[in-house]
Amino acid sequence: MHQAVVTAISAAAADAGIVLDPQQRLLVDRLAVLVPEGHRRTRRSSGPRGLYVHGSAGRGKTWLADAFFDAGPTPRKTRIHFHSFFEELHRRVHEHRNDPHSLRLGIDDVVGDSELLYFDELHVHDSGDARLLTRLLEYVLARRITVLATSNYAPDDLLPNPIWHHLFEPGIAMIKDHFDVHHLDGQTDYRASPRPDSVGFAAGTWITVPASDRLSPSTETVGLTVRGRRFEVSSEGDGCLQASFAQLCDAPVSTIEYLTWAGTYSRWTITDVPTFDDADEEAQQRFVNLVDILVDENIAVTFTSPHTLPVFCSAATASRPDAFRMTSRLRLIRPTA
């Protein structure tokens, strides 16, 4: 089984024109021994219960984990992304709100009968998320579900805010006690060199529009309704959504709306993107979340801004210590003057 997984990932890399570097090949070897409990030859098999992969943005964690998931030894598997997990879990818990075990039932609905759970882009910045992730870890360990998680953070660095960090210490302890922890220590951010045949998000563009060339914004908007809440955007239709940064991030828009629209519109245009110097913290966080979702859903996006992409990324990383993931992802797209 080990060699079959290595062969499958290597073939996927070759098909994609990717040459795995030495650090990535080490991770492939670690992934290849991650065998779901029900597929081990004996209870004494040496394979880990889970694998937690962390490292800097753009080093190939998600690509390799996706390739392993596709080649995985069981059809009973679930892939969840940070934002979609919480949106789905909250919705499922709400459906069971009259049951005292609503959280466990909600996790049951999300995880199902999976033997392998792949959690992509695990990060914790909110005390409420910390509680839910701790319950999820307790659940999967009790069910003996094999877990693969990717993150930009080492376990001890999750929920880095010192005021709240103690709330996730039980979750950190479970990760360190029950999972192998692997640092993908690559030196190259592969997102910095977009491929010419890019598709989806990587086929998007960042267009710098000088202030003198900008047209006056239209006062006409279109209303979109999600779960009874109305939101204004510039236009929508034929699979395309156009909205300004202000409409998407200054307004009280949540990941629920972003996920809904990502499932509806395959092409986006986001206009008038300011630097983070000119956006409040809530708007900054919404834009970080939005980029996460657009990348995970592989949506092609045209961004327009009075600022170049390097200027935007530089200001973002200076404003927010957690903006590195977003700026790495934005390097996938083509800057166009």
TrEMBL record:
<keyword id="KW-0547">Nucleotide-binding</keyword>
<dbReference type="InterPro" id="IPR005654">
    <property type="entry name" value="ATPase_AFG1-like"/>
</dbReference>
<dbReference type="GO" id="GO:0005737">
    <property type="term" value="C:cytoplasm"/>
</dbReference>
<dbReference type="InterPro" id="IPR027417">
    <property type="entry name" value="P-loop_NTPase"/>
</dbReference>
<dbReference type="GO" id="GO:0005524">
    <property type="term" value="F:ATP binding"/>
</dbReference>
<keyword id="KW-0067">ATP-binding</keyword>
<dbReference type="GO" id="GO:0032153">
    <property type="term" value="C:cell division site"/>
</dbReference>
<dbReference type="GO" id="GO:0016887">
    <property type="term" value="F:ATP hydrolysis activity"/>
</dbReference>
<keyword id="KW-0132">Cell division</keyword>
<keyword id="KW-0131">Cell cycle</keyword>
<dbReference type="GO" id="GO:0051301">
    <property type="term" value="P:cell division"/>
</dbReference>
<protein>
    <submittedName>
        <fullName>Cell division protein ZapE</fullName>
    </submittedName>
</protein>
<dbReference type="Pfam" id="PF03969">
    <property type="entry name" value="AFG1_ATPase"/>
</dbReference>
